[in-house]
Amino acid sequence: MQEYIQRNIDVELLEWKNNPMRKPLLLRGARQVGKSSAVRHFGKEFKYFAEVNFERHKAVKTFFQGDIDIRLIAQKIAKYINVPIEEGETLLFLDEIQECPEAIMALRFFKEDYPGLHVIAAGSLLEFTLQELPTYGVGRIHTLFMYPMTFDEFLKANDENGLIDMKGQADSRHPLDDAFHEKLVDYFRIYLLVGGMPEAVLAWIKTHDFNQCSRVQEDIILTYDDDFSKYKKRVSPDLLRTTMRGICHQPGEKITFKQISADYRSSQIREAVRLLTLAGLTTPVVATSGNGIPLDAEANEKNMKILFLDSGLLLTVLQLEGNLAQHLIEQIMTGNPQELVNKGGLVEMVAGLEILRNKPCVQRQRMFYWEKSGNSIAEIDYLDIFNLKVTPIEIKSGTQGGMKSLWLFMREKHLTEAIRCSFENFGEFSYTDSQADNAVRHITIVPLYALENLQKMK
């Protein structure tokens, strides 16, 4: 049996189990991010674990047809898979539930007619099925979103809980000792290459061989390619492949549809991006004016950067096209930290993924950035909300004088707090802005390996 790697969602699942107001749980996320493995591991908390896979157990679909009697359906499943289904004793796991839309529709009735039974559903390409259903019980179903592994989860997998504790206790006034800082920077370099797909991380732990990780990542990319034919019949799989690869060529950059392909119209590529986002493979970072909250009130969906699901998979996509990734890999392993941050859109992308994955997983999170065009283009990599205020987050290794966009944004929006993420140690500095009534602007420096700490600053 494959060894299980501890995940952050384990805590969420335990809280759900013990909640007396519990609802059926729908676990959503891209293929192979570890949804089924997490549920199977969680199943050890119960006396019985009853798993139905609708791709494998096709006959079970018939149980959900016609009039819905949830307790009768549970009895039929128990007999079919030969596992007792009892309130408080059994976890019922309905996997690949997208293959049975009737089962998705029936989830809400577990809350109404069988509230004592613990039920979790998950599936690949689930979002497409949900879009086509008139309703699936919103309000009577609890949802959690799952992503590839965060850097902290990667450290846990490498038995580096001490490093997690040390950086969790550090802050701008209590930086880490140099030895711990350097070790974390080295681990983050490895994380950029291995990524957070559980199977690739497991390959790294067992072999410490990047080639073994690449083989796993190639298989995952091929799986995604195979899935493209299932997205929607009216969308060309070639368009989806072309769009995915085009996005991988523009990490950290504002997406230009013409650069993705001259063979398709912008409207076609935009639809492909929408479908890739539904599948969990991409996350748009949308431009916004950043004048106040909510940030999406002034969002401009026409301008966006796009985060690809995983850095390891992105490098694999580039490698499959030739040797395009080799210079990136060499830069990650041997480049000095300042070059790596300032020249690498990949680092900016991974920072965005870290910010995204460490947000609460109970809802689909949206990501934003700021840009100002004109004689000189200004851009802030990410905008977020801290203490009910818009806060700019710059992924930079520059000095105070090298952050013109940051000063411009803070001055224009009358802000006094910002965050800079780099390979520097924890720190802070203040700047008296002589161009804006001598306002004192404060910058908190958060290392790229400690983006999980941002949640504590909220």
Automatic annotation (TrEMBL):
It comes from the Bacteria. Residues 22-155 form the AAA domain. The keyword Ribosomal protein does not apply. GO terms for molecular function: ATP binding. Residues 226-398 form the DUF4143 domain. Keywords: ATP-binding, Nucleotide-binding. It holds the Pfam family AAA_14. SUPFAM superfamilies: P-loop containing nucleoside triphosphate hydrolases. PANTHER family: ATPASE. This is ATP-binding protein. It comes from Prevotella pectinovora.
